[in-house]
Amino acid sequence: MYLLYNAVMLVVSRRKMWKVTTKCRNSLFENLQELHPKEEKKQSCDKCKLMDDCRRILKKKCESLGEENYIIKEESMAIRSKYSALKVKYKFLKRQVKSEEGIESDLTKIGNSTLVEKHKLNMCRLSCVRKFVSDLLDVVFGRDILTNSSMKGIKGASKPPLPENKLNDVMSYTCEKFCVDVGTVRAAVRQKLNICHKSRTIQ
Length: 203
What we know:
The relative contact order is 0.05. It is built from 6 helices and 2 strands; from the N terminus they run H-E-E-H-H-H-H-H. It is mainly α and 203 residues long. The protein has a two-stranded antiparallel sheet with strand order 1-2. Among the domains are: 64-104; 107-201, Arc Repressor Mutant, subunit A (Orthogonal Bundle), CATH 1.10.10. It comes from Araneus ventricosus.
């Protein structure tokens, strides 16, 4: 009988303990359920705040990039206008160079720097040095300058000397062409100047 009583009491105590344990478990679960949404809400608030901060930073960056893009567009327009102006200038200079090349193609250089027309140079007589120098002086200087000039200048006279560079080019070109010395060419120049002076006095 005593054993039966103890067995019954053990069963009753176990049932009570099971009920208490179940109740504690349920209350703990309910408490966890109540706490968990709060944590989620807190985490979601933190995430929203972080996203708002990121959005503000990105907005500022977009604004700064927009300003930089505007500046780049302005600079690009200025560069395009400069390029167009330079292109027009280049075309103009190119046409000018072509026209000058067309003019210079009719000229040839004698000596170091003197330019003469090709067809006039080809018309100079080649039968002798004297005739060639006479014709070449007419081509380079012209009859008026030869009439009113001297070879080296005369003291007390109004006749200036011929331009030295051109005269040296004439003499060096003639020396190379006819393989003669400078004295022969200089004598031909003096003879030409004397003829021009005499023709002036006769007129």
